[in-house]
Hints:
By secondary structure, the chain is of the alpha+beta class. It folds into six domains: 45-287, Beta-Lactamase, CATH 3.30.450; 391-495, Beta-Lactamase, CATH 3.30.450; 514-545 and 590-596 and 606-611, no CATH class; 622-682 and 727-737 and 756-826, Beta-Lactamase (2-Layer Sandwich), CATH 3.30.450; 828-985, 2-Layer Sandwich (Alpha-Beta Plaits), CATH 3.30.70.270; 1003-1247, Alpha-Beta Barrel (TIM Barrel), CATH 3.20.20.
Amino acid sequence: MNLKIPQRRQRANSLKLKISLPVALLTAVLLTLTGYSLFGLFRQELEKTIERQQGTLVGSLAAQIDDRLLAFTGYLRHVAAQTDTQVLLTPAAAARFLEQQSGGQLLFGAGLALFDAQGSLVAVSQTRPCRCLSSERLRQLLETALQSRQPQMSDFVLSQENSRTEPRVLYVFPLLRQGRVVGALGGSLVLFGPGLLNYLQAFDTGAGSYLSLSDGRQMLRLSTQEGWLQIQPLPPHQRTLRRKALVERSLTLEQTDEQDAPLLSSVQRLQQVDWALAVHQPLAEAYAPLQPLRQQLLVAVAGKIALAAVAVWLLMRQLMRPLSQLTARIAAVAETEEQQAGPAADVGEERVAGDELAVLQRSFDLMLQRIGQHRQALEEQLQQLQTLIDAIPNPVFYVDDRGCFIGCNQAFEIVFGHPRAELVGTALTGVLPAELAAIVCGRCNQPDSLHSSEQQLLFADGREHPVLFSAAAFSRAGQACHGVVGALVDISARRRAEEQLRKLGLAVEQNPNAIIVTDIQGTIEYVNPSFCHLTGYSQEEAIGQNPRILNAGSAPREYFQTLWHTILAGHDWRGELRNRKKTGELFWQHALISPLKNSRGDITHFIAIMEDITARKRAERREQLTGRVLALLSLPNERTDKIHDILELIRDFSGCASVGLRLREANQSFPYYQSVGKKPDGQECPLLPLADETLAESVAPGASDSLCSRILQGLPQGVPVDGCFTAAGSFWTNPMSHCLPLADSGLCREQHCHCQQARSMALIPLRLEDEVIGLLQLLDADERKISRDLVEFLESIASSIAIAFEHRQVTEQLQERENRLDYLRFHDSLTGLPNRQYLRQQLRQALARTRRSGQPGAVLLLDLDRFKTVNDSLGHDLGDRLLREIAARLRTNLRENDVLARIGGDEFAILFEGLRDGQQVARRVEVLMEQLTRALCIADFELYVTASIGISLFPNDSNEIEGLLQAAEVAMYRAKQTGRNRYQFYRTEMNPRTRDLLLLEGQLRQALEKEQFVLYYQPKIDLLSGRVAGAEALLRWQHPERGMVSPADFIPLAEETGLIVPIGDWVLRQACRQLHQWQQAGLPLRLAVNLSGRQFQQEQLLDWLDAVLADCGATPESLELEITESVAMHSVENSIAILGAIRQRGLRLAIDDFGTGYSSLSYLKRFPINCLKIDQSFIRTLDSDANDGTIADSVIALARAMELQVVAEGIEKPEHLQFLQQRGCHEGQGYLFARPLPLAEFEDFVANWPGLPA
Length: 1254
């Protein structure tokens, strides 16, 4: 027992210390914070007081200087008024007069002087003589005053008078008698009077303080304590202070001087002159009274902390005495329990290790462990469960088997707006719908099942939310169902995200082009179905791979290095790639690869959009092969060399290992004439012309039942199961070994087949009309090498070979066949149109004619939009028929001297000559596009075809064939990029403007000077009342040589060159003048004028509008300015401000061409506009396009809902008018009422307008 008592005392002291130290520390912190907070508030008030005192000082000084200046000015004016002309006659009289004014001189410390009309000094006052009255500065003021006849005042100057330096201001008052200058009165005023200096010294502003007076150019600086005075140039910090004083008149602020020393400066603007008077005091001196207060605060806080620590110690000592007694009693009880549980030594060690609270805790634990262990565990589990449920972000609730709430989580309280305490015990139907409550209560009947469904529930925010609802029963011992727990998940965001992802997914999934998304290392993360369809790889096979799986190895390494360098630099890459499908088949793609960036601008992925251009490339290669074969056939070479070269070309083109030729001889047999080829290992396996008939390689038609014999007869009977015949009688098979025995001597050369290890073969007859004169044979070891498409193309080559090598026709037939050969050389076999070679030949001649005549021409490159989709979905046969129909339709809409050519798979070219300008080309192209969009009925299919057209003009764009074709191709691709079904002229923004554009620009600059512009007016009709509501002013150019030039020709050029600004100024002024004349004549018309984008973005727009309205006299309420959607959306916030300023001037505002831009309704409702104008492109096709009718209807409804006026442009038919009237359109304009009219015709139209038909 003697050992335990000290241990408990030690523990009590330990607990006392643990509590006392934190309490004392907390008290010290609170006292410190309170003291510093009070000191901070007091310091702020003291600083404000100091600033106010200094501001009061400056204000008082400024008022004294203002009063002194005002009084002295009045004094001089009084003296000048009393000065008689006789006084100026003699110096003595003048001196006496000045001495009589000694009172004012003594009062102001002023000197006075009189001058005659020529500026000569007459007399100087001797009461207060002043040197500055004879200074050069006074002489300058005197000359100015005599010339201007107005009093003059100088800047402050320093004057050395009687060994004192004084700041003075010089005055000169001209003496006017009967409008004539008879002399002048000069005066100098001591700026700082004794009273001001005494007042200033009365304030203890510190040794470093000084007074400054600035006039914008120089600064007068006066030390308030040391008394020195100087004038110096105005420092930068004083310039800033002076500018603020001129605006705010008086202020006090902290700043730094030239040496970056902190100052407290108070400045006051003088009322008499634009001078700024300031008092500057170092911050340390200004706020010096704060230092003693800070020290006193520290001492006070330290004393309070010491007293608080002693008080806490004594209090804790008193409070801990009962705790020590309680600890002793509890320890005795716990010791008994511990002796029953185990050795006492361990318990004693634990008790010694802790303080009184530890002993109490241990003792209570031992007692309660046996009586409350299960209950404590249960409470912990319940608490953990409630914490877990509250941590669930979604609403969770649980009810008993009667449907009454047992509890819920915090999310449920927030969502439904009911506290948990109010819900417990209430029925479920008070919060949730009855049908949902029934589902919950029904779970007790199905305790082993989980219910899950989507519901619509009303939340506390007043809106219905889609939720995923789940419910399950829970049980208790001896009870099958004690209650039901339910959970709700708000799936609003998920549904929106799913809908957005669904749309984006459909756009990507249904895109006809192949799309790949990779990470930054090039690993494929996504491919769309078009990619799988094109390459043969499934999504599972492609994802995780590198796009190198498609690499055919045909492009050099530098090509891909350039590609990676471009996209890693953050730019788009465009180019053509030759890739390999999963099957090994090669194909061509036009690829656009773009980097995808995150919000920080870092590249995270790449996306590649690839268009299959294999058909186009194949057509180009086929066209090239056809041209080269026909060129060889036309050469005067030996027959053997010619055939060898042709077979080499066919072998290189087809990729087959061997190509051979049988030609009919005089004995009607068909021996192998020649063959070229290679073995699979790459070694040559040539077969030269045969003369030895012992090899049984000669086949005669009908001589056997062999396949070759039947083909030569044109009788494809007995076709093997795995073989295929074309419509022209050609045979091809893959693989041949399954159906054709090599021993068939009439089929092919057995030795050659073994040499080639042939597995695929084609036999193509050389037909001359209905007669077969030869056989073209292809062999390859790859069973996939030969296809029907290849065989059908080679049939056209075989036909040309047959024509060239038939030697049994008479001379007339030979000539006809030569003509046919020439035709095939320059024409497309499918459509009968000229081919690329013919086009180039005609283009060369057209360029020569243009150089001689100077008449321009145009090259059009026309590419059918999505033709590949037609080919892939409906088949090549229907695609060929479609191409022939397109060719025929184009031909019927061209002139006789126009050239139409097919230069690729779905590409056509057109050559125009003898044109006037680009507008003529545009009109003809629009006719072609309109004809193309008409439906085509082919094989029970109604097809609609559109085209993208690129246009290059010669000689403007180029004088070379290749340059023109390339320019047209660039323009065609630009048309496709901008939306397809449109045409695009070639433009070279990076090159100098062509000579014609420069000439047009020069003429445009002269048009304003020569008054070649004129305004036309198109009437606007009120569709409700039928009256003429107003007009739109439209600009026209009356060119002396070109005639009336359309705005479409010169407005874009004016925009680009900036001439639109002076032209727009002329248009608005002319329109306002005409509007003013109408108003004077009593015509209540409203006039609309278009405002260009460049005009709208001018900084001086509002000033310009004010000037025009002021000059022309038109009332702004009758003037309406029209801007397009794109101009208004260029800089939305700036546009809103400008439009608001325009509306404040009374002008009306209209959005022109509405529906063609990309304006947001959230911004549209903020635009302070009066009117929406529906673009004419939606009105002209109201009766033929339901979509345009829907758009027009929506715009009218939108305008009426926003209480805006709506005007429809392009009304040309009565049906258009009826449609718009039925939907409540306010006004309309168009050719149905009148074209744009000259002024006289327009006024006549207004006078004789009968109104709308009933």
